[in-house]
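Sample entry as discussed:
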Amino acid sequence: MPTTHHRALRRAATACAAALLAVLVPAPAEAGAAARGRTGVLQQDADALHDTGVTGVSARLRTPRGVGTARSGAGDLRTGRPVPQGEYLRIGSTTKTFVATVLLQLAGEGRLSLDDTVERWLPGAVRGQGNDGRRITVRQLLQHTSGLPDYTGDVVPDLSPAGYRRNRSTTYTSEQRVAFAMRHRPLFAPGTEWKYSNTNYILAGMVIKAVTGRSWETEVRSRILEPLRLAHTVLPGDDPRLPEPHARDYQQFTPGGPLTDTTIAYLPFDGDADGAVISTAEDVNTFFTALLRGRLLAPAQLADMQRTVAVPDGRDGPPGSRYGLGLEWTPLSCGGGYWGHSGSGFGYLVWPGVTADGRSAVTVAAHSRPGDEDTAVRQLRAMTGMVDHALCTG
Protein backbone atom coordinates (compact mmCIF):
# COMPACT_ATOMS: atom_id res chain seq x y z
CA MET A 1 0.00 0.00 0.00
CA PRO A 2 1.38 3.48 -0.86
CA THR A 3 2.25 5.94 1.87
CA THR A 4 -0.87 8.00 1.12
CA HIS A 5 -2.98 4.90 1.63
CA HIS A 6 -1.19 4.22 4.91
CA ARG A 7 -2.17 7.68 6.11
CA ALA A 8 -5.75 7.10 5.01
CA LEU A 9 -5.84 3.82 6.88
CA ARG A 10 -4.53 5.52 10.00
CA ARG A 11 -7.25 8.18 9.83
CA ALA A 12 -9.90 5.53 9.24
CA ALA A 13 -8.61 3.45 12.11
CA THR A 14 -8.91 6.40 14.49
CA ALA A 15 -12.38 7.35 13.28
CA CYS A 16 -13.69 3.80 13.47
CA ALA A 17 -12.16 2.66 16.75
CA ALA A 18 -15.36 3.36 18.65
CA ALA A 19 -17.41 1.58 16.03
CA LEU A 20 -15.28 -1.52 16.37
CA LEU A 21 -16.17 -1.78 20.03
CA ALA A 22 -19.70 -2.55 18.90
CA VAL A 23 -18.37 -5.50 16.91
CA LEU A 24 -16.51 -7.13 19.77
CA VAL A 25 -18.06 -8.89 22.74
CA PRO A 26 -16.80 -11.85 24.75
CA ALA A 27 -16.62 -15.07 22.73
CA PRO A 28 -19.60 -16.80 24.46
CA ALA A 29 -21.85 -14.10 23.00
CA GLU A 30 -20.40 -14.44 19.52
CA ALA A 31 -23.76 -14.55 17.78
CA GLY A 32 -24.65 -11.17 19.23
CA ALA A 33 -21.25 -9.82 18.26
CA ALA A 34 -21.79 -10.93 14.66
CA ALA A 35 -25.10 -9.10 14.50
CA ARG A 36 -23.73 -5.90 16.04
CA GLY A 37 -20.68 -6.19 13.78
CA ARG A 38 -22.80 -5.13 10.82
CA THR A 39 -22.52 -1.56 12.07
CA GLY A 40 -18.79 -1.80 12.79
CA VAL A 41 -15.60 -1.25 10.85
CA LEU A 42 -15.18 -4.93 10.06
CA GLN A 43 -18.55 -5.01 8.31
CA GLN A 44 -17.89 -1.69 6.59
CA ASP A 45 -14.64 -3.03 5.21
CA ALA A 46 -16.27 -6.32 4.14
CA ASP A 47 -18.89 -4.32 2.23
CA ALA A 48 -16.16 -2.16 0.67
CA LEU A 49 -14.32 -5.28 -0.50
CA HIS A 50 -17.56 -6.65 -1.95
CA ASP A 51 -18.08 -3.32 -3.73
CA THR A 52 -14.80 -3.83 -5.63
CA GLY A 53 -16.48 -6.76 -7.40
CA VAL A 54 -15.76 -9.69 -5.07
CA THR A 55 -18.82 -11.96 -5.13
CA GLY A 56 -18.69 -13.00 -1.48
CA VAL A 57 -16.61 -11.93 1.52
CA SER A 58 -16.23 -13.25 5.05
CA ALA A 59 -14.01 -12.27 7.96
CA ARG A 60 -13.42 -13.32 11.54
CA LEU A 61 -11.54 -11.17 14.05
CA ARG A 62 -10.46 -12.25 17.53
CA THR A 63 -9.02 -9.79 20.04
CA PRO A 64 -8.73 -9.67 23.85
CA ARG A 65 -12.14 -7.94 23.83
CA GLY A 66 -13.87 -10.77 22.01
CA VAL A 67 -14.79 -12.02 18.57
CA GLY A 68 -16.29 -10.20 15.59
CA THR A 69 -17.45 -11.55 12.26
CA ALA A 70 -18.60 -10.00 9.00
CA ARG A 71 -20.08 -11.29 5.75
CA SER A 72 -20.95 -9.48 2.54
CA GLY A 73 -22.23 -10.41 -0.89
CA ALA A 74 -23.53 -13.75 -2.07
CA GLY A 75 -22.28 -17.22 -1.24
CA ASP A 76 -23.97 -18.56 -4.38
CA LEU A 77 -24.67 -16.37 -7.39
CA ARG A 78 -27.29 -18.76 -8.74
CA THR A 79 -29.46 -18.81 -5.62
CA GLY A 80 -28.42 -15.52 -4.03
CA ARG A 81 -27.94 -17.16 -0.63
CA PRO A 82 -25.53 -15.33 1.68
CA VAL A 83 -22.02 -16.44 2.59
CA PRO A 84 -22.59 -18.99 5.36
CA GLN A 85 -21.43 -18.49 8.92
CA GLY A 86 -18.44 -20.61 9.93
CA GLU A 87 -17.79 -21.60 6.32
CA TYR A 88 -15.09 -23.99 5.16
CA LEU A 89 -12.39 -22.32 3.06
CA ARG A 90 -9.68 -23.43 0.72
CA ILE A 91 -6.65 -21.76 2.29
CA GLY A 92 -4.18 -22.47 -0.52
CA SER A 93 -0.64 -21.42 0.30
CA THR A 94 -1.49 -20.84 3.96
CA THR A 95 -0.81 -24.59 3.97
CA LYS A 96 2.88 -23.70 3.73
CA THR A 97 2.97 -22.41 7.31
CA PHE A 98 1.67 -25.75 8.59
CA VAL A 99 4.34 -27.61 6.60
CA ALA A 100 7.13 -25.27 7.70
CA THR A 101 6.05 -25.68 11.32
CA VAL A 102 6.44 -29.46 11.07
CA LEU A 103 9.92 -29.17 9.56
CA LEU A 104 10.96 -26.71 12.27
CA GLN A 105 9.67 -29.09 14.93
CA LEU A 106 11.79 -31.85 13.38
CA ALA A 107 14.79 -29.51 13.43
CA GLY A 108 14.13 -28.78 17.10
CA GLU A 109 14.08 -32.51 17.78
CA GLY A 110 17.46 -32.89 16.09
CA ARG A 111 16.09 -35.10 13.35
CA LEU A 112 17.31 -32.80 10.61
CA SER A 113 19.12 -29.51 10.22
CA LEU A 114 17.74 -26.57 8.30
CA ASP A 115 21.16 -26.42 6.67
CA ASP A 116 20.95 -29.98 5.37
CA THR A 117 20.98 -30.13 1.61
CA VAL A 118 17.94 -31.31 -0.30
CA GLU A 119 20.19 -33.98 -1.79
CA ARG A 120 20.80 -35.50 1.63
CA TRP A 121 17.11 -36.30 2.10
CA LEU A 122 15.97 -36.60 -1.52
CA PRO A 123 18.89 -38.00 -3.52
CA GLY A 124 18.62 -37.19 -7.20
CA ALA A 125 15.24 -35.45 -6.93
CA VAL A 126 16.56 -31.99 -7.83
CA ARG A 127 18.65 -32.41 -10.96
CA GLY A 128 18.42 -31.14 -14.50
CA GLN A 129 18.70 -27.89 -16.45
CA GLY A 130 21.25 -26.63 -13.90
CA ASN A 131 19.07 -27.32 -10.83
CA ASP A 132 21.15 -29.06 -8.17
CA GLY A 133 19.86 -30.32 -4.83
CA ARG A 134 23.43 -30.55 -3.55
CA ARG A 135 23.56 -26.73 -3.46
CA ILE A 136 20.12 -26.07 -1.96
CA THR A 137 19.27 -26.30 1.75
CA VAL A 138 16.04 -27.04 3.58
CA ARG A 139 16.13 -23.47 4.90
CA GLN A 140 16.25 -22.12 1.36
CA LEU A 141 13.23 -24.22 0.40
CA LEU A 142 11.22 -22.81 3.29
CA GLN A 143 12.28 -19.22 2.57
CA HIS A 144 11.91 -19.30 -1.23
CA THR A 145 15.58 -18.49 -1.73
CA SER A 146 16.38 -21.78 -3.51
CA GLY A 147 16.05 -20.39 -7.03
CA LEU A 148 13.97 -23.39 -8.07
CA PRO A 149 11.43 -22.78 -10.87
CA ASP A 150 7.72 -23.04 -10.10
CA TYR A 151 5.99 -26.15 -11.43
CA THR A 152 2.50 -24.63 -11.48
CA GLY A 153 2.74 -23.19 -14.98
CA ASP A 154 3.26 -26.70 -16.31
CA VAL A 155 0.04 -28.02 -14.80
CA VAL A 156 -2.20 -25.28 -16.22
CA PRO A 157 -1.95 -26.01 -19.95
CA ASP A 158 -5.12 -24.09 -20.75
CA LEU A 159 -6.03 -21.04 -18.66
CA SER A 160 -9.70 -20.90 -19.59
CA PRO A 161 -13.05 -22.13 -18.27
CA ALA A 162 -12.84 -25.16 -20.55
CA GLY A 163 -9.25 -25.82 -19.49
CA TYR A 164 -10.17 -25.62 -15.82
CA ARG A 165 -13.01 -28.11 -16.26
CA ARG A 166 -11.00 -30.43 -18.48
CA ASN A 167 -7.88 -30.58 -16.28
CA ARG A 168 -9.16 -30.06 -12.74
CA SER A 169 -9.35 -33.79 -11.90
CA THR A 170 -5.83 -34.61 -13.09
CA THR A 171 -3.67 -35.83 -10.22
CA TYR A 172 0.11 -35.82 -9.94
CA THR A 173 2.50 -37.26 -7.39
CA SER A 174 4.91 -34.95 -5.61
CA GLU A 175 7.71 -36.48 -7.66
CA GLN A 176 5.88 -35.66 -10.89
CA ARG A 177 5.37 -32.06 -9.82
CA VAL A 178 9.08 -31.70 -9.06
CA ALA A 179 9.93 -33.30 -12.40
CA PHE A 180 7.86 -30.61 -14.16
CA ALA A 181 9.97 -27.94 -12.46
CA MET A 182 13.21 -29.67 -13.41
CA ARG A 183 12.43 -29.00 -17.08
CA HIS A 184 13.30 -25.34 -16.49
CA ARG A 185 16.48 -23.47 -15.67
CA PRO A 186 16.97 -22.16 -12.10
CA LEU A 187 15.69 -18.67 -11.45
CA PHE A 188 18.96 -17.70 -9.72
CA ALA A 189 21.81 -19.23 -7.75
CA PRO A 190 20.64 -20.64 -4.39
CA GLY A 191 20.67 -18.09 -1.58
CA THR A 192 21.26 -15.05 -3.76
CA GLU A 193 17.69 -13.78 -4.27
CA TRP A 194 14.07 -14.33 -3.24
CA LYS A 195 11.34 -15.64 -5.54
CA TYR A 196 8.16 -17.45 -4.56
CA SER A 197 8.03 -20.98 -5.96
CA ASN A 198 5.52 -23.65 -5.02
CA THR A 199 8.08 -26.30 -5.95
CA ASN A 200 9.93 -25.49 -2.73
CA TYR A 201 7.04 -26.75 -0.61
CA ILE A 202 6.40 -29.84 -2.70
CA LEU A 203 9.99 -30.73 -1.80
CA ALA A 204 9.44 -29.71 1.84
CA GLY A 205 6.59 -32.20 2.06
CA MET A 206 8.82 -34.87 0.53
CA VAL A 207 11.54 -34.10 3.09
CA ILE A 208 9.04 -34.60 5.92
CA LYS A 209 8.27 -38.07 4.60
CA ALA A 210 11.97 -38.89 4.13
CA VAL A 211 12.73 -37.90 7.73
CA THR A 212 9.70 -39.42 9.47
CA GLY A 213 8.55 -42.18 7.15
CA ARG A 214 5.09 -40.61 7.21
CA SER A 215 3.33 -38.21 4.87
CA TRP A 216 3.27 -34.50 5.50
CA GLU A 217 -0.50 -34.76 6.04
CA THR A 218 -0.04 -37.35 8.79
CA GLU A 219 2.57 -35.23 10.51
CA VAL A 220 0.48 -32.05 10.28
CA ARG A 221 -2.48 -33.90 11.72
CA SER A 222 -0.61 -35.42 14.67
CA ARG A 223 1.64 -32.44 15.45
CA ILE A 224 -0.72 -29.49 14.86
CA LEU A 225 -4.36 -30.32 14.22
CA GLU A 226 -4.85 -32.77 17.08
CA PRO A 227 -2.93 -30.83 19.79
CA LEU A 228 -4.74 -27.59 18.89
CA ARG A 229 -8.09 -29.39 18.40
CA LEU A 230 -8.54 -27.91 14.95
CA ALA A 231 -11.54 -30.09 14.24
CA HIS A 232 -12.56 -28.11 11.17
CA THR A 233 -9.23 -28.25 9.37
CA VAL A 234 -9.23 -30.87 6.63
CA LEU A 235 -6.44 -32.58 4.69
CA PRO A 236 -8.47 -33.62 1.65
CA GLY A 237 -5.97 -35.55 -0.45
CA ASP A 238 -7.50 -35.98 -3.91
CA ASP A 239 -11.07 -35.23 -2.80
CA PRO A 240 -11.94 -32.06 -4.77
CA ARG A 241 -15.02 -31.13 -2.76
CA LEU A 242 -15.42 -28.58 0.03
CA PRO A 243 -17.25 -29.69 3.18
CA GLU A 244 -20.50 -27.95 4.04
CA PRO A 245 -21.15 -25.18 4.77
CA HIS A 246 -19.21 -23.22 2.16
CA ALA A 247 -19.61 -20.41 -0.31
CA ARG A 248 -18.99 -20.97 -4.00
CA ASP A 249 -15.80 -19.67 -5.61
CA TYR A 250 -15.72 -17.92 -8.98
CA GLN A 251 -12.85 -17.23 -11.37
CA GLN A 252 -12.91 -14.75 -14.24
CA PHE A 253 -10.37 -16.18 -16.68
CA THR A 254 -10.25 -13.19 -19.07
CA PRO A 255 -10.84 -9.45 -18.54
CA GLY A 256 -14.55 -8.78 -18.88
CA GLY A 257 -15.27 -12.49 -19.31
CA PRO A 258 -17.87 -14.54 -17.46
CA LEU A 259 -17.39 -15.85 -13.94
CA THR A 260 -16.75 -19.59 -13.85
CA ASP A 261 -17.71 -21.60 -10.77
CA THR A 262 -14.40 -23.02 -9.53
CA THR A 263 -15.58 -24.42 -6.20
CA ILE A 264 -14.35 -27.87 -7.22
CA ALA A 265 -10.60 -28.01 -6.56
CA TYR A 266 -8.11 -27.79 -9.39
CA LEU A 267 -6.17 -30.84 -8.23
CA PRO A 268 -3.03 -30.26 -10.33
CA PHE A 269 -2.06 -27.53 -7.83
CA ASP A 270 -4.61 -27.80 -5.02
CA GLY A 271 -3.52 -31.23 -3.85
CA ASP A 272 -0.10 -31.17 -2.17
CA ALA A 273 2.08 -29.63 0.53
CA ASP A 274 2.09 -26.26 -1.19
CA GLY A 275 -1.64 -25.61 -0.93
CA ALA A 276 -4.01 -28.47 -0.14
CA VAL A 277 -5.44 -27.61 3.29
CA ILE A 278 -9.10 -26.72 3.86
CA SER A 279 -9.99 -24.92 7.09
CA THR A 280 -12.20 -22.27 8.66
CA ALA A 281 -11.36 -18.71 9.68
CA GLU A 282 -11.69 -19.72 13.32
CA ASP A 283 -9.23 -22.60 12.97
CA VAL A 284 -6.79 -20.47 10.98
CA ASN A 285 -6.85 -17.77 13.65
CA THR A 286 -6.33 -20.40 16.34
CA PHE A 287 -3.36 -21.89 14.47
CA PHE A 288 -1.53 -18.60 13.94
CA THR A 289 -2.25 -17.44 17.48
CA ALA A 290 -0.80 -20.67 18.91
CA LEU A 291 2.21 -20.43 16.62
CA LEU A 292 3.06 -16.84 17.59
CA ARG A 293 2.54 -17.59 21.28
CA GLY A 294 5.10 -20.40 21.17
CA ARG A 295 2.74 -23.33 21.60
CA LEU A 296 4.02 -25.16 18.53
CA LEU A 297 7.70 -24.26 18.35
CA ALA A 298 10.49 -23.84 20.86
CA PRO A 299 11.93 -20.29 21.05
CA ALA A 300 14.94 -21.10 18.86
CA GLN A 301 12.80 -22.56 16.09
CA LEU A 302 10.22 -19.75 16.25
CA ALA A 303 13.10 -17.28 15.98
CA ASP A 304 14.33 -19.13 12.89
CA MET A 305 10.86 -18.98 11.39
CA GLN A 306 10.69 -15.22 11.99
CA ARG A 307 14.11 -14.48 10.52
CA THR A 308 13.02 -12.74 7.35
CA VAL A 309 14.32 -11.52 4.03
CA ALA A 310 12.88 -8.63 2.05
CA VAL A 311 10.21 -9.36 -0.55
CA PRO A 312 10.53 -7.21 -3.69
CA ASP A 313 7.78 -4.61 -3.76
CA GLY A 314 5.16 -5.22 -6.42
CA ARG A 315 1.47 -4.89 -7.14
CA ASP A 316 0.65 -8.27 -5.57
CA GLY A 317 1.26 -7.34 -1.94
CA PRO A 318 1.82 -4.46 0.51
CA PRO A 319 5.20 -2.67 0.22
CA GLY A 320 7.72 -3.51 2.91
CA SER A 321 6.63 -7.13 3.29
CA ARG A 322 9.16 -9.74 4.36
CA TYR A 323 9.30 -13.53 4.30
CA GLY A 324 10.58 -15.90 6.97
CA LEU A 325 10.35 -19.69 6.91
CA GLY A 326 6.82 -20.26 5.68
CA LEU A 327 5.70 -17.08 7.40
CA GLU A 328 5.02 -13.62 5.95
CA TRP A 329 5.51 -10.32 7.79
CA THR A 330 3.48 -7.30 6.70
CA PRO A 331 3.84 -3.75 8.09
CA LEU A 332 0.85 -2.15 9.81
CA SER A 333 -0.20 1.45 9.24
CA CYS A 334 -0.36 1.96 13.01
CA GLY A 335 3.23 0.76 13.52
CA GLY A 336 4.88 -2.61 13.78
CA GLY A 337 3.51 -5.41 11.68
CA TYR A 338 1.69 -8.71 11.62
CA TRP A 339 2.48 -12.31 10.74
CA GLY A 340 0.54 -14.69 8.53
CA HIS A 341 0.55 -16.35 5.14
CA SER A 342 -1.90 -15.61 2.35
CA GLY A 343 -3.36 -18.30 0.14
CA SER A 344 -5.05 -18.28 -3.25
CA GLY A 345 -6.20 -20.38 -6.17
CA PHE A 346 -8.82 -20.33 -8.88
CA GLY A 347 -11.66 -18.24 -7.46
CA TYR A 348 -10.47 -17.65 -3.91
CA LEU A 349 -8.08 -15.57 -1.81
CA VAL A 350 -7.52 -15.91 1.95
CA TRP A 351 -5.51 -13.42 4.02
CA PRO A 352 -4.79 -14.24 7.69
CA GLY A 353 -2.90 -11.96 10.04
CA VAL A 354 -1.92 -12.08 13.70
CA THR A 355 -0.14 -9.47 15.78
CA ALA A 356 3.37 -10.24 16.98
CA ASP A 357 2.17 -10.91 20.53
CA GLY A 358 -0.55 -13.25 19.31
CA ARG A 359 -3.27 -11.19 21.02
CA SER A 360 -5.27 -10.29 17.92
CA ALA A 361 -5.91 -12.40 14.82
CA VAL A 362 -8.03 -11.93 11.72
CA THR A 363 -8.73 -14.00 8.62
CA VAL A 364 -10.41 -12.50 5.56
CA ALA A 365 -11.70 -14.61 2.66
CA ALA A 366 -12.72 -13.50 -0.83
CA HIS A 367 -14.70 -15.90 -3.02
CA SER A 368 -13.89 -14.62 -6.50
CA ARG A 369 -10.86 -13.56 -8.54
CA PRO A 370 -10.96 -11.09 -11.45
CA GLY A 371 -9.49 -11.50 -14.92
CA ASP A 372 -7.69 -8.14 -15.14
CA GLU A 373 -4.71 -6.99 -13.13
CA ASP A 374 -6.02 -3.53 -12.21
CA THR A 375 -9.14 -4.99 -10.58
CA ALA A 376 -7.04 -7.63 -8.84
CA VAL A 377 -4.80 -4.93 -7.38
CA ARG A 378 -7.79 -2.87 -6.25
CA GLN A 379 -9.35 -5.88 -4.55
CA LEU A 380 -6.06 -6.88 -2.92
CA ARG A 381 -5.59 -3.40 -1.50
CA ALA A 382 -9.11 -3.44 -0.11
CA MET A 383 -8.44 -6.84 1.45
CA THR A 384 -5.09 -5.94 3.01
CA GLY A 385 -6.57 -2.64 4.16
CA MET A 386 -9.32 -4.62 5.89
CA VAL A 387 -6.73 -6.72 7.74
CA ASP A 388 -4.81 -3.57 8.65
CA HIS A 389 -7.92 -1.84 10.04
CA ALA A 390 -8.91 -4.89 12.03
CA LEU A 391 -5.53 -5.34 13.71
CA CYS A 392 -4.85 -1.62 14.24
CA THR A 393 -8.19 -0.96 15.90
CA GLY A 394 -8.59 -4.34 17.61
